[in-house]
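Quick one, T. Sequence first:
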Amino acid sequence: MEKASEVIKYADLKQLKFNLDYVELLMDAMGKRNLEDPDLESEHKILTKRYAELLNERK
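Structure tokens:
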């Protein structure tokens, strides 16, 4: 998986949503195993912020 900092440079809203869903799926799977991944959480934060920015731009 590409790093979120690279994805947000060129991704449109649809691509960002796909990547965000994928990261959330991974986080959910890790949570069920009682594991934490700070890098994955960081990726989620970056993608979520950029997704919100693009949604606001559409309004």
